[in-house]
Specification:
The chain is mostly helical and about 400 residues long. The protein has 16 helices and no strands. The N and C termini lie far apart (about 45 Å).
């Protein structure tokens, strides 16, 4: 009876710990709901403020700029001073972004709001994801990696859906949308408040200073493999988020914000679901499936513009979600299993730097190409370049033993 009781107590503790992991992951979901909620509104703002596709991609790029700038130091500060001192300012930046979005009447306001959103996301993908891993501890590494990855893509999908619904049913959806977002973010502050204090008395503290993000030499291959799969996938989803609404309205003649929001939502819900289905597979297999899905996404994108098919675009978005979700899961799993705790947030920053740099550059360049050569040529060029990069990454992963 004593042995049975002990086993039962252990299972109960494990379930409580698992619930704690998923509760902590809510702060990631809340910030990522904000990160993509502007997607269905881009066409609305283009009509209200009157700006071009190249300006649209610059607005998206301002988000990436804020994110990349934050990734340079947020992970290091989090590993050095603890998670809370970094997370609270990050979520405050997200709330400020809500205020700017709700009162945006110029391109400058949108640029500032997207920049602050990027800062918040940079904080959450480094310090926030590391916090989830901290709560999981050594016994729940796999659960923590899954929770961190799923919460990101789930929030990224719910944001456009919420935005699309409100845009369809309200004449002026912007203020109600970002008021709801602010409530979510305030609830995330309470989650941060409940995080346990970490011991920041690490070795060599007196010699510590800010530096270019990196990982121990023993973990560089783990990060390179994660970036090889994650970067193409997130670049594909970035195209759908930044230029997808314009492609739907101008080339495919689908003008409903709800369609754009639903497409983005389904893309990220696919990214969420595929992780639950395949998370038990070996990491190498996860990477291979991720990159295969990204290649299929590019094929669907080319077919969409060649055939003027909304369905092909929808399928391209689904495959893009699969590519990002699995690439992200594999990368976070390698970090959670192999990277020491005191370098974990910095490692998360490196993974996201490697992913978001091409996710910013390629769609922005494509936006300018579309303005000069047209949607068909610009989209086809983007798909060709990304496919070449994915195939190169595919052979790199195949040569390695994960």
């Amino acid at each position: 009876m004593d042995k049975t009781q002990t086993t039962r107590t252990t299972l109960i503790k494990k379930r409580i710990s698992s619930k704690r992991v998923w509760l902590t992951a809510w702060m990631i979901t809340a910030v990522f709901i904000l990160s993509n909620s502007a997607t269905p509104l881009y066409v609305y703002w283009q009509q209200e403020i009157n700006f071009s596709n190249s300006t649209l991609t610059l607005i998206f790029a301002s988000y990436i700029a804020g994110l990349l700038l934050t990734l340079l130091f947020a992970g290091q500060l989090s590993d050095r001073y603890g998670r809370k001192p970094v997370l609270f300012p990050g979520i405050t930046a997200a709330i400020m972004a809500c205020v700017l979005f709700a009162n945006a009447h110029s391109v400058l306001a949108l640029l500032a709001a997207r920049f602050l959103s990027g800062i918040a996301v940079g904080v959450i993908v480094s310090a926030g994801m590391a916090s989830v891993a901290d709560v999981g501890g050594t016994k729940l590494k796999q659960t923590a990696s899954l929770a961190a990855s799923v919460s990101m893509v789930l929030g990224a999908g719910l944001g456009p859906l919420l935005s699309g619904i409100l845009t369809s049913v309200l004449l002026r959806p912007v203020v109600p949308l970002f008021l709801i977002q602010a409530v979510f973010l305030i609830s995330a502050c309470f989650v941060v408040w409940t995080l346990p204090q970490r011991n920041t008395d690490l070795h060599d503290q007196n010699k510590w200073n800010l530096h270019w993000p990196g990982v121990p030499s023993a973990n560089r291959l783990h990060l390179a493999l994660g970036i090889a799969a994650f970067a193409p996938g997130i670049t594909a989803t970035s195209f759908v988020l930044s230029l997808g609404p314009s492609l739907l309205s101008k080339l495919l003649h689908v003008t409903s914000p709800l369609v754009a929001g639903t497409t983005a939502c389904v893309m990220f819900l696919t990214a969420t679901g595929i992780q639950f289905v395949l998370n038990k597979l070996p990491v190498r297999t996860i990477f291979i499936v991720s990159m295969t899905a990204t290649i299929l996404s590019m094929a669907g994108l080319v077919a969409a513009v060649a055939l003027s098919s909304a369905m092909c675009f929808f399928m391209a978005a689904i495959f893009a979600g699969m590519g990002q979700g699995l690439g992200q899961l594999g990368g976070l799993t390698l970090i959670g299993v192999h990277v020491p705790e005191h370098r974990r947030a910095e490692a998360n920053a490196v993974l996201n730097l490697g992913g978001y740099i091409p996710a910013a550059l390629l769609p922005v360049c494509t936006g300018f190409l579309i303005d000069s050569k047209g949607l068909v040529s610009g989209t086809t060029g983007f798909a060709f370049i990304l496919t070449v990069l994915v195939i190169s990454a595919f052979f790199f992963v195949l040569r390695q033993a994960v």
